[in-house]
Write a structure and sequence with these properties.
Blueprint: H1 25-28, E1 38-42, H2 48-53, H3 70-78, H4 82-93, H5 103-136, E2 139-144, E3 147-152, E4 161-165, E5 173-179, E6 185-189, H6 191-194, E7 199-203, H7 206-209, E8 222-226, E9 238-242, E10 245-249, E11 254-255, E12 260-262, E13 266-273, H8 279-282, H9 293-326, E14 328-329, E15 332-333, H10 352-366, H11 375-391, E16 406-407, E17 419-424, E18 431-442, E19 445-447, H12 453-462, H13 509-521, E20 526-529, E21 536-539, H14 543-555, E22 557-562, E23 566-573, E24 576-588, E25 596-602, E26 608-614, H15 616-619, H16 631-643, E27 646-656, H17 658-672, H18 679-690, E28 695-706, H19 710-719, E29 723-727, H20 732-741, E30 750-754, H21 759-767, H22 770-794, E31 799-803, H23 805-811, H24 814-825, E32 829-832, H25 837-851, E33 854-859, H26 865-870, E34 873-877, H27 884-887, E35 891-893, H28 898-938, H29 949-959, H30 961-970, H31 976-981, H32 987-990, H33 997-1022, H34 1036-1058, H35 1064-1085, H36 1089-1092, H37 1098-1103, H38 1107-1134, H39 1138-1147, H40 1160-1178
Parallel strand pairs: 17-29, 17-33, 29-32, 30-31, 31-32, 33-34, 34-35
Antiparallel strand pairs: 1-8, 2-3, 2-4, 4-13, 5-11, 5-13, 6-7, 6-12, 8-9, 9-10, 14-15, 16-35, 18-19, 18-28, 20-21, 22-23, 23-24, 24-25, 25-26, 26-27, 27-28
Helix pairs in contact: 3-5, 4-5, 5-29, 9-10, 9-28, 11-28, 11-30, 12-20, 13-14, 17-18, 19-28, 22-24, 24-25, 28-30, 28-33, 28-34, 30-35, 33-34, 33-38, 34-35, 34-38
Length: 1180
């Protein structure tokens, strides 16, 4: 139950508080110097000196723009792109006589494209601003005018005194003064800061802890001198001057903004840092900028088109200069009809070089339509829409947690379809990070029926019947632990020898009783009773600890209440529930260095007992040297539990006598209150004296179950040719067995193990010669890597590489990195055990830079952030370890199994759509731009455009842009079901088949070919023919309309040929764009000649009535589409791509083959592809 007002716990008398180390005298001496100059007047923000300091307010803004800088800053962002700069220059030059068209016709599309992109940026920034407004307007109780009243967060000032209630967030970085507990203890959840869900204990000073009600602060004044704002979340240096007495501050008195108050009714605090000075905002740096490989290649294509633009402009200017030079022959003009004597410098036979140069500038503007002005904005629109489809995919929605998939960035959609290597965390990513008590060893007897998922994998692997410790056959039919009754979170244990009070009939019932008493007493959990349902739950620092308390409760030792210095249990004795209390004297908390936790209690019989639990690596050393009758059996059970993928702790106790405890208590309190530099050493020395000669009771085993669908997902990703690396902090044995359980490792797979756990290295370690250890370790790793390479080359089956953290540190050395990478990339699976967060990031960087292929990192905790940011794509699991990984990720999913659909379906579709979209964009612009070039060549490179100004302006904006956007959003080569059924189809993206240089150049060649067909057929078929009824031949205006009509029809019909999956939207956009061209031609033609110029009634009066116009259009369009049609027909029949074969089988009705089966020709291509992949890795 929750603590009441009359049941307060004075934890400072119980905890060792070893983590509450204040600033040392050396650190304290830095205050007042550079970097430590902040002065805070507590409860006196209106002090004249405080006002003069002018610290920042508490208003927070995370927006990219403001109302003042939006236009200039956004314009700067837009013109960082080379293409936009080019069009801006062209728009400026279009006001000069050099321009071949009117300035308005080039300004309009530029303004549309830039305006659309700026509008998108503005909408996204407005959403961020709304979140800021919501955060800034939260309410907090502030002490003003001798009472607390509600104020907005943004109105807080440095020095303000605030009161924060349970489950509220801290509005700024606060100095803790007191809490609802009499000694100023409070619990804080820092999930928003570091991703950890376990609660942190904070502790106020004793002299301020008494200020625990609203009326205590009338006379309170103090001054804080501390460090300046910085991003370090894990340290704080400062001093509190209260009543002219300075006291050193540490992080234990600081409550950071955006952390939450838990299990404490309220706290009082003083604002130290506000707004952007708070540590969380100091850490709010922008994530690293990531660009997809397709986008980087697209930049190169733009440069190619720029080179083409310059080349054809240069060629045209040379021909123009030569022809202009020849016009002047012995004082007479050959082309007298051009009246060169009256022309400007743009055409002056007397200065042909200058005329050629000016023509070059004209050509740069005229052929600018080779550069797709709407490409960038179209791709951004498509990616945003693709992201919406990912977010709304019901098959990636996790109903239990109400969390859908979320694309946090749209820049990397197509990169999802090109992933070569997945690097995954284990705990919370492959597993649930929800611990369940499943087995235990007590007095040398193993309890707990059933099998874990890892054990089932072991059974399948060894093909033997698994027996439990008692020799009884376990029920493995359903693959889960045998359970009865309702499901209980954290408890998946069943054994008739223990449950329902049957433990009293066991031979060692007294040891069983002590074992579960330790579990119910030795912890920091807090009971909480739901007022509505009456159900008892626990707030624990870790899932493991909660599982132990729940297990004890279910066996019959229910922890239900804490008071000031006592723990109360419901225990079953002789079939009756009996209340027992234990006086809690001291608690020596768990730490990563100690790897154990102890409590000292006094029972009802006035006996002093030390209860202890911890890791086997330290606990067995603490056992009494006297007879431990079941130590060997317990060690054997622990090894078996580790093989089964379970996490173990050893349980022990020790009776104490009064004299020993009294002497130790004095030493312990002296060490605890020390403020010297060696305080931690003094505390550790004191705990060593009491935590000795322990009596072994047994060991616990908790399971972190695999998430649903993980084995199937990994198997499917492996079938897709994706390499999977698991980076975990687990022991090697546990990691290997979990590897089998999740199908990362397979039966018959060759295991190459790299480890430094050898007798020679261990012997050197005992000698303590660091240089010798380093040298020997490096030589050992190099030898093992070379031997692994030899094993790999001789292996007949696939191989897996397994390496521990110590070995990994040497393998990542520059001298060994390439050897390690070559070995690892040739293995089907890689498991890195005992990996630190830094090693995870380094491994990810090595794979990304070494293979030059797309890497994806997936994790769920704060320790995975470096790995996620280093990878090409970071995927965060929104699991139990907070949202830190999600906040640093590019995509967020609720379960690992959704990665299968994210990559194989959405990744494949997005890659294919973006690749086809970009290729088509370049095709249609080249097809259009080169018709201008051919016309120029036919017109002596005069600089006269073939089309009306507004025809050209609307080409990329209205007549051809919407169909390509529809392609990028809706097209599917195969359905989602077939993407999952044939995972090898994913290799189209990994090998970049749809966006390699041959394919890109092929589309460009198709564009040039289409332009030639359109121009030369239009010209040659109409040049000598009577076009009008009155016998007039075709003129410049009509030829422009005819060619433009053929271009619009050809590029849109080409789109129709390329699309695999038609929707009504695509039909509407394709045929609607063609129809809109005719509507525009009619409306534009009815404007006054001053505005419509060459388009004045040309369609209504000349083109539409002429059958020749329609026949030529049909002939040209059919001729333009024929080359691509023949190419695709030949390719589909004789050299089909993977999706072609699947489409053919589907259309023939013979697609219903077994999952994973591929047609013969596709299998051959896949095998060839795998060989190419291996070869490319070996060349690295």
């Amino acid at each position: 139950m929750a603590f009441g007002r009359n049941e307060r716990v004075r934890f400072s008398k119980i905890y060792s508080l070893s983590c509450f180390r204040p600033s040392t005298r050396d650190e304290h001496g830095q205050i007042g110097q550079k970097g430590y100059s902040r002065v805070v007047y507590c409860n006196d923000p209106d002090n004249l000196e405080a006002v003069q300091l002018r610290y920042r307010g508490n208003y927070v803004s995370t927006t990219k723009y403001t109302a003042v800088n939006f236009i200039p800053k956004s314009l700067f962002e837009q013109f960082r792109r080379v293409a936009n700069i080019y069009f801006l220059v062209v728009a400026c030059v279009s006001f000069s006589p050099l321009a071949p068209f009117r300035a308005s016709s080039i300004l309009f599309p530029l303004l549309v494209v830039i305006g659309a992109t700026m509008a998108k940026e503005g909408v996204e920034d407005w959403r961020r601003r709304k979140q800021d407004i919501k955060a800034n307007n939260r309410k907090i109780h502030v002490y003003r005018d001798r009472s607390f009243s509600e104020r907005k967060w943004k109105d807080l000032r440095v020095g303000d005194l605030v009161k924060v209630y349970k489950d509220e967030y801290f509005p700024a970085d606060l100095l803790l003064l007191s809490s609802s507990y009499p000694d100023g203890i409070c619990y804080v959840e820092t999930m928003n800061l570091d991703g950890e869900t376990n609660l942190k204990l904070k502790h106020a000073f004793d002299f301020t802890a008494s200020l625990n009600d609203d009326n205590s602060f009338h006379q309170f004044k103090a001054v804080v001198k501390c460090e300046d704002p910085n991003e370090d979340l894990y340290s704080f240096i400062g001093s509190l001057n209260y009543n002219n007495d300075p006291h050193p501050l540490s992080l234990q008195q600081i409550l950071l903004r955006d952390s939450k108050l838990r299990n404490t009714e309220y706290i009082y605090g003083v604002v130290i840092f506000t707004g952007h000075d708070t540590k969380v905002m100091q850490n709010a740096t922008d994530p690293p900028s990531k660009r997809s490989k397709i986008e980087r290649r697209m930049d190169k294509i733009i440069y190619i088109l720029f080179s083409t633009l310059i080349s054809i402009s240069f060629i045209g200017s040379i021909f123009f200069g030569l022809r202009t030079h020849r016009d002047l022959n012995q004082g007479s003009y050959k082309r007298w009809y051009l009246e060169p004597s009256r022309t400007t410098v743009l055409y002056d036979p007397k200065r042909p070089v200058l005329a050629a140069f000016l023509h070059f500038l004209t050509g740069l503007m005229l052929y600018g339509y080779l550069i797709p002005i709407s490409l960038y904005v179209s791709i951004e629109m498509v990616k945003v829409l693709q992201s919406i489809f990912i977010n709304q995919d019901q098959d990636m929605y996790h109903e239990e947690t109400n969390r859908p998939a979320r694309a946090r960035t749209s820049n990397l959609n197509e990169e999802l379809g090109q992933v070569d290597t997945v690097l995954s965390d284990k705990t919370g990513t492959l597993t649930c990070n929800s611990m369940e008590f499943v087995k235990c060893s007590i007095a040398g007897v193993s309890y707990g029926r059933g099998m874990t998922e890892v054990e089932l994998a072991l059974v399948k692997r060894k093909n033997i019947e698994q027996l439990d410790a008692a020799g009884n056959t376990s029920n493995i039919s359903d693959g889960h632990t045998v359970k009865s009754g309702k499901s209980i979170k954290g408890f998946n244990f069943s054994d008739e020898r223990i449950m329902d009070g049957q433990w009293v009939n066991e031979p060692n019932s007294d040891i069983i009783q002590k074992f579960f008493r330790v579990l119910s007493i030795c912890h920091t959990a807090i009971p909480d009773v739901n007022k509505d349902t009456g159900e008892l739950s626990y707030e624990a620092e870790s899932p493991d600890e909660a599982a132990f308390v729940i297990a004890a409760r279910e066996v019959g030792f229910e922890f239900f209440q804490r008071t000031q210095t006592s723990i109360y249990l419901h225990e079953c004795e002789n079939g009756k529930k009996v209340d027992r209390s234990y006086e809690l004297l001291n608690m020596i908390e768990f730490s990563s260095a100690r790897k154990r936790m102890s409590v000292i209690v006094r029972n009802a019989e006035n006996q002093l007992i030390l209860l202890c639990k911890g890791a086997d690596s330290v606990m067995f050393e603490k056992l009494s040297k006297e007879s431990q009758p079941f130590e060997d059996q317990t060690k054997n059970h622990i090894n078996k539990y580790a093989e089964a993928g379970l996490r173990t702790l050893v349980i022990a106790y020790r009776p104490l006598d009064e004299e020993e405890y009294k002497a130790w208590k004095e030493e312990f309190l002296s060490a605890k209150t020390s403020v010297s530099n060696d305080r931690d050493n003094l505390v550790d020395a004191a705990t060593e004296k009491i935590e000795r000669d322990l009596i072994l009771l047994g060991a616990t085993a908790v399971e972190d179950k695999l998430q649903k669908g993980v084995p199937e997902c990994i198997e499917k990703l492996a079938d897709a040719g994706i390499k999977i690396w698991v980076l975990t902090g687990d022991k090697m044995e546990t990691a290997i067995n979990i590897g089998y359980a999740c199908h990362l490792l397979a039966q018959g797979m060759k295991q190459i193990v790299i480890t430094l756990d050898s007798p020679d290295i261990n012997a050197l370690g005992k000698l303590g010669d660091r240089e010798a250890i380093t040298k020997a370790s490096r030589e050992s790793i190099e030898k093992q890597l070379r031997e692994g390479r030899s094993q790999l080359e001789s292996a007949k089956s696939s191989s897996a590489l397994i390496i521990d953290g110590r070995s990994l540190a040497y393998a990542l050395d520059k001298n060994l990195e390439s050897l390690f990478l070559r070995l690892a990339t040739d293995c089907s699976s890689v498991i890195c055990c005992r990996s630190s967060p830094k090693q995870k990031a380094l491994v990810t960087k090595m794979v990304k830079e070494g293979t030059r292929k797309t890497t994806l990192a997936i994790g769920d905790g704060a320790n995975d952030v470096g790995m996620l940011q280093e990878a090409d794509i970071g995927v965060g699991i929104s699991g139990a370890e907070g949202m830190q990984a999600v906040m640093a990720s590019d995509f967020a999913i609720a379960q690992f199994r959704f990665l299968e659909r994210l990559l194989l379906v959405h990744g494949h579709w997005c890659y294919r759509r973006i690749a086809m979209m970009i290729c088509y964009f370049f095709y249609k612009n080249i097809a259009f731009g080169f018709t201008l070039f051919w016309f120029e060549a036919h017109a002596s490179f005069s600089g006269q455009p073939a089309y009306n100004d507004w025809y050209m302006s609307f080409y990329n904006v209205f007549f051809t842009s919407l169909p390509v956007i529809a392609l990028g959003v809706f097209d599917q080569d195969v359905s989602a079901r077939l993407c999952l059924k044939y995972p090898r189809l994913y290799q189209e993206g990994v090998q970049n088949i749809l966006f390699n240089w041959p394919r890109i150049l092929g589309w460009m060649f198709n564009g040039v070919l289409s332009s030639m067909i359109i121009f030369f057929i239009c010209k040659n078929s109409t040049i000598h023919q009577a076009f009008r009824e009155d016998g007039h031949v075709i003129d410049y205006e009509i030829l422009g309309v005819l060619m433009y009509t053929c271009v619009v029809w050809a590029v849109n019909c080409q789109m129709a040929l390329s699309i695999n999956y038609f929707t009504w939207i695509q039909h509407f956009f394709i045929w609607g764009s063609i129809f809109f061209w005719y509507v525009f031609l009619v409306i534009y033609g009815y404007l006054k000649p001053k505005w419509s110029t060459t388009a004045y009634r040309v369609f209504v009066e000349a083109c539409a009535p002429s059958p020749f116009y329609w026949m030529t259009t049909f002939l040209v369009v059919a001729s333009t589409l024929l080359p691509y049609f023949l190419y695709r027909a030949f390719q589909t029949r004789f050299h089909p791509m993977y999706h072609d074969e699947i489409q053919r089988r589907r259309s023939e009705g013979c697609e219903a083959v077994t999952p994973g089966e591929l047609p013969g020709r596709v299998k051959d291509k896949m095998n060839h592809l795998s060989e190419r992949m291996k070869h490319s890795h070996r060349e690295i």
